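Entry 12.
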Amino acid sequence: MKKNQNSKSKIVAIIQARIVSTRLPGKVLLDVEGKPMLWHVIERLRRARQLDEIILAIPDTKENDVLEEFAKENNLKYFRGPEEDVLSRYYLAAKSFGADTIVRITSDCPLVAPEVVDRVVRECLKSGADYTSNILKRTYPKGLDVEVFTFEALEKSFQEAKAGAEKEHVTLYIREHPEKFRRTNVENDRDLSRFRWTVDEKEDLEFVQEVYKRLFREGKIFSMEEIIDLLRKEPKLVEINKNIKRKPPQ
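Predicted 3D structure (tokens):
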């Protein structure tokens, strides 16, 4: 991670994480090559050059104390807020740390690509959009999702969102109200949306573990293209989690 020099905007990545998971309990701390999955998310984000700060947004419930301890042990700034009202948690975290531009990352994406994060951030700054992502039209693998939005857009969502789903899912209000927000989308030069690199089920975790087993080296971050090359050489890896039903963007 390198202090952004191209804009006066303070760009903060906020990772939402909680210990409770209905399909794969405690998944964010499950082992991937000797480290918790969340550790890998953070280490990969730290290689993004457009970020000024990384924050872990944790629920304020007792069972999530373990994530606060994780943040302290890994020298990571954190904020604790409502568990179910994730929109409020994000807004309060962004306000607390003085974020001008927010990069939303979820803790179940241990293959998050810093080069993709940087590309989406640059497009948001260049376009002046309220919201820029690579999910409005998906051309990247599921698990490389990046959403970037202004503090003003987040604050407007916080003030106006009423429905439970709009509060549970941080950017739903923005995505469902194109008349209120200027939005742009970043597309890859080829469609890779068929790939599933997120972790919701045990098969997803197995897939990620196999990728890490082959590509991970301490102190080195492998790229999206290196993963694609691996899957081209070992197509059977894709079979591990190909039958998992995809959820809509959240």
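Annotation: The chain has nine helices and nine strands. The first strand starts at residue 11 and ends at 16.
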